[in-house]
Structure formats: C-alpha cells, structure tokens
Write a structure and sequence with these properties.
single chain; about 350 residues; alpha/beta; 5-stranded parallel β-sheet; two-stranded antiparallel sheet; 12 helices
Length: about 350
Amino acid sequence: MLKKPIFIIGHQRSGTSLLRTCIERSEEVWTIGREGKPIFEKIFHPKYRNWHSNALDESDLTEEKVIQLKKDLLDACRKPVVEFGDRDKIDYLKWVVPQGVNPFYYDCNMELLKQNFGHDLPEGPPAEEELDEITPFCFMVPSRKPTPEEFTNGIRMLEKSIQSCFRIPFLKKVFPDSKYIFLIRDGRASISSSIESWRDPRCFFSYQVPLELKIKGYSDIYPWGKKWWNLCLPPGWRDYTERSLEEVCAYTWVKANTEALRYYSDLKKQGNAILVKFEDLLKDPVKILTQIAEVIEIKIDDNYLNNKLPVVMTGSGPDPEKWRKNSREISKIIPMIKELQTQFDYSVEC
C-alpha cells in the first residue's frame, strides 16, 4: 500500500525535477522515476474532460478510478540503486540507438550527444501522435521493486508532476495522509525557462489541442506550433491561444503558483507541507533538504544530504542571471507577475 505519499508541487521550470532527484537519494523514498503524467492521464487525460485543463478535484473521483490510480502508482514504484551521470546515459543510449531510438529526445548533455551521435539534430515532436511521456525522455536507472513485506508495511512514494499545482483538492481526497513540498522560483527565471522550453525543437510537447493555436513567437515560427501545446495545461488556457508566448508563460506561472498557494497555509498548519525557494535550495542544499526531511518525516542519512546537485531537464546548470537572455520578453510581462513576485520578495526589475 501507499503510505504518506510525498508530492512535489511547483510550476514548470522551477526546479521540481532537481528537487525530486535530491529527495530520491533517501533510503526511505520510492520513486516512479519520471513525471506522473503518464500514470495520471491514463485515467484523467484532459481530453476526457472536454479539454478543460490539467485541473482535478473531488468531482473527478470514483471508487473505480481511485483504485486504479493507486494500483498504477504502486506498480511503478522503484528503488534506484545508482544515480546516472551523463556518461552512464551515453553508454545506455549506445545500446538502444541501434534499435531505432533517437538519442536527441533524451535528458542528456547536448554536447555529449553531438560528440557521440553526430550533429544531425531532429526538429519537431518525436511522433505525430501525442505520447504518454513528454520529451526529454527520462532514463530508467537500475532499480528494484518492493518486496512483499515492503508492500505490506507501506511504500513512501515520491511523485512530482507540473500538473499537480491544479490537483491539490484531488490529491488530498485520494491520499489523506499525504505530505507536500511546495517549490517556488523567481518568476523571471521560471518564465524565461518556459519560453525557452516552448521554443525547443525537440522537447516539452505535451498536448495536441483541439483548436488552432495562434501564439505569437511560437505558432507563427514552428510548423508544429499551430497544434502542440507545451508543458502543463492551465485552467483558462483557451483565452491565451492568440496571445504572445511570453504572456502564455507568464499566465501559466501566475495561475499555477496562485492555485497551489491557495492550499499551502492549511496544509502547513496541519504539519503536512513546507514551502521552499529554488534559490535557497541552490544556495544551501543541506539546510533546505534537512528542513524538508523533518516535514515529510524521513530519516536523514549521508546520501540524502549529498551536497552535489544534479543537472536534470536542462542544458546547463542553474544561473540566476540566465533569464536575461529573454529580458525583452520578460519586461513586457512584469505587470502580470508583479504582485506574486513582490509577495515572495523577488525583484520586479528587468
């Protein structure tokens, strides 16, 4: 059974993958090894709700669906026995590329990919139809499944999906003993990274939506840009199908964080949630991971407090000034994010 599952709640491009990788180092935590999107959307895909959004609440629950979701999550739980580095990933890809796999759709250092597999980079989605897992694909690292005894005693599953910002009432109802880690990042950096992700010719394709997109700076540039919505699908997304790309990304950042924070205070009072800043995690990972461990009720060991932060789902390491490459676009959306930026003591200068 699942016992006190742990959910990371954060907007896309806010460091949720990095945080998940850090917490997975704990001996007490079990992981599904990737975003929970394929598991949740096997049952709760937006197309089953007239393409409303990624939002879920109590109205989406039936006993049959809850049983199936819990079973699928439990079946996916694994205990990693090794942490893959870039060289491990390249070694793995050398085995599977001869089978027709395109390595450039995987989460790996781009320069190493070019060195080992040439420079003929693909562009556009990896398939014409929507896939369960969005690119960049995660690597299935060596791992083991729980023993019957571990199943019986309860599995502490760690799950992170960028869609979870819109699903907290649903998660609370399905998993009443759950713990939550809320992660927030400077909107300028998170939105800039989202812009880069939408522009990426190989990654982050999420949904083929049922209406034509006319997003300036995306739909008018890329041949796939008229039908592929990237990353999460927030409530109200239809109102932004003819806006600029920076407005789409700013709206998603505001909507995701606002929705998540609606529930944070009550969960914190119950002792079931902690909110951390991405920037604080980078500055002092040992301190932040120690605080997280106390709230989610896991023991601290040397491996968990590893001070070395991984580089995941990004082409380069974190840089607080990296957003300035899109400073022109960011300056246009400062009015949209100003209130939330100020609430968390982030600058609104550009």
